[in-house]
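Task: sequence design from structure.
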């Protein structure tokens, strides 16, 4: 009877183990299936975004944002090229060889690979020096037309085979989009574009303030240089209703995703939105939140803008600001210290529901505040070296005791001298606020 009882008990246990094992297997399969569905959904969203744009730079940003967001990667580098087209370079934290050297070496890379699996060469050594993790080739009809390199994942998790397969699918879609984009730009009627751009450039010039306000104890200057006839950078200084020279003014510098006419249209939308919403009763954070919500509701998912919006109170000597995913504003204190107006929220129109935060800084006599677009520090010379922040700070300090217009002149002169004859692929915008020093008796 004991044996019969044990036999029955073991039979029940065996059945339970089989059921638990089957359940665990089903759960694993469900997780794999859910991941596949998510991958397909991501791929579909990317394809939809890619088919809505004909701008190579925007295609590159979409690809990089999708790949880095998928795995929580903070470092990347992308290079894409086509004959008779300017090479496209995006990078953060990783370095690639020069485009000419990369073109030749990349032809041997037809499949995604981990960096340690790459053949010995300049590409491998460059990526290993900065802890690059994986490489995805952009394969076009005429061969490899680009390379995307990613750094390590969050928590240094390994890239699996399915990860490489997913990334290869995204890279393949982006390669087609690049080809279509470049083909479009080659075949489009040049004269028609020039006529349309000339009209748009005239409209855009009218959107920038023709004359900056004169404020009590503060000097202001701003300048923008579009990479094309029209650009996506925006700068403005708007007085609140009824505010005089010592009253509060809104300072805005924004950088719209993309280039050319589409970017200029979104720029004009931001300008109209800010001027329509701005009022003394509306807090700064609420102004930024509403602007972001309106842009998200009225523009494609691939369209967004980084921006610094700051409320300047000259009488109080204070700036309250929201940095929406933009470059850090640089506050050069009269004593030589540098403070940063760091990001306090996501880009406008990109991620609804994520709150913005407001920060404030006190201004002292002799302080200099510079708010700029990434075209300043990412300006490249003929060797594809970037101007970078250190040179920017040097040019600011070189004329730090001059007036605001002189400081703008010094920075643009330094950038243009550095760039030489190299074409620039991003708009360059700089706004400078200089607090006057007390007059000597």
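Answer:
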């Amino acid at each position: 009877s004991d044996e019969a009882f044990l036999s029955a008990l073991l039979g029940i246990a065996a059945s339970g183990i089989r059921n638990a094992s089957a359940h665990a297997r089903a759960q694993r399969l469900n997780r794999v299936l859910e991941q596949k569905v998510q991958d397909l959904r991501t791929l579909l969203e990317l394809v939809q975004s890619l088919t809505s744009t004909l701008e190579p730079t925007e295609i590159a940003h979409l690809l990089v944002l999708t790949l880095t967001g998928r795995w929580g990667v903070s470092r990347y580098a992308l290079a894409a090229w086509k004959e008779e087209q300017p090479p496209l370079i995006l990078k953060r934290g990783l370095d690639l060889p020069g485009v000419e050297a990369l073109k030749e070496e990349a032809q041997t890379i037809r499949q995604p690979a981990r960096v340690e699996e790459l053949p010995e060469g300049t590409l491998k050594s460059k990526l290993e020096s900065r802890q690059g993790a994986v490489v995805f080739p952009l394969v076009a009809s005429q061969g490899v037309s680009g390379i995307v390199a990613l750094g390590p994942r969050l928590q240094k998790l390994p890239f699996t085979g399915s990860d490489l397969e997913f990334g290869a699918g995204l890279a393949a879609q982006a390669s087609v989009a690049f080809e279509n984009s470049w083909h479009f730009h080659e075949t489009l009627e040049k004269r028609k574009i020039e006529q349309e751009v000339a009209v748009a450039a005239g409209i855009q010039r009218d959107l920038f303030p023709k004359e900056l306000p004169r404020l009590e104890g503060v000097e202001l200057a701003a300048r923008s240089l579009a990479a094309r006839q029209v650009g996506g950078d925006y700068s403005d200084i708007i007085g609140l209703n009824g505010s005089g020279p010592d009253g509060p003014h809104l300072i805005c510098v924004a950088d719209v995703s993309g280039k050319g006419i589409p970017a200029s249209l979104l720029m004009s939308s931001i300008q109209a939105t800010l001027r329509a919403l701005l009022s003394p009763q509306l807090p700064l954070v609420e102004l930024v939140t509403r602007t972001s919500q309106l842009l998200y509701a009225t523009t494609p998912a691939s369209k967004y803008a980084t921006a610094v919006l700051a409320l300047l109170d000259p009488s109080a000597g204070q700036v309250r600001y929201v940095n929406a995913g933009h470059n850090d504003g640089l506050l050069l204190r009269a004593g030589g210290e540098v403070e940063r107006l760091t990001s306090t929220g996501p880009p406008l129109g990109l991620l609804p529901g994520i709150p913005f935060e407001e920060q404030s800084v006190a201004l002292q006599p002799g302080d200099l505040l510079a708010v700029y677009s990434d075209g300043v520090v990412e300006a490249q010379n003929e060797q594809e070296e970037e101007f970078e922040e250190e040179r920017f700070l040097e040019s600011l300090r070189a004329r730090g005791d001059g007036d605001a217009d002189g400081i703008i002149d010094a920075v643009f002169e330094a950038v243009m001298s550095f760039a030489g004859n190299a074409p620039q692929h991003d708009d360059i915008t700089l706004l400078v606020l200089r607090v006057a020093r007390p007059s000597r008796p």
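The two ends are 113 Å apart (CA to CA).
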